[in-house]
Amino acid sequence: MTDSDDRLLPLDGGDIHVRQDGPRDAPALLLIHGSASSARSWDSLVPLLTGSHRVIRIDLLGHGRSAKPAGPSYALQDQARRVGAALDLLGVEHVVAVGHSSGGAAVTALAEERPDLVTALVLINTGPSLDAFIAPESAAISPAQWPPTDEQLRQFASTGFNPGYQVPRELLDEVRFMTYHSLTATMQATADYLMRRTLPDRLKVLGKPLLVIFGADDRRWRSSSAADYHAVPGAKVELLPGLGHSPILEDPPRTAAHLLAFTGHN
Asked: Residue 145 is part of a domain; what is its CATH number?
């Protein structure tokens, strides 16, 4: 079975949207989006991966087509437990977990919660600690301005891409489809997770193979901080010249080449 499959899985706190592409008997590759994004951020990359992988994309609670409740916890450990439960329902026993931006923190939390499930990790433009974060120049969107205008959305998203990159309208709309609470609570959850312990410190005790891909011109996280991941034994760190915070959209073929080379050995 190789066709695409979209479904909503009923989990604690609300329904979780899952999309699968590629042969179901191929090695599983999990893709987790970043803050204020969704499974759609991987659209350009997925066709390059399905020849050799069962590609599973999940909208974390609060994002995309998943529920956006006001009550349940958006802490990364809870998000990770939901992802693990979703993979259990899909019958997935082992997965290489890939995260873009804050999605890299989410898959790290998944590996902590479910070391039996995650065989290796790939972090794409994921800052190792809050020290690496580049504070935005534009003002934050306030509750009174919600939902945001197109111009506010473009300002909000501008540092997520290289200058001149035309952000697809559907990705801007994914921010607008969030609630103000789900936007702020999920972003705060990532900050809380990084504040408690840096990602290299978390990863080096897990003993999982690690690939770090980083656009060298990232304007959200200092690309020089990617070197911090060398603290993880055996970690492979790839800096991609000419790319910004979102290599998965800015240059899918180059991103896929590194990803496939890595998964061929894990």
From this structure: 3.40.50.1820
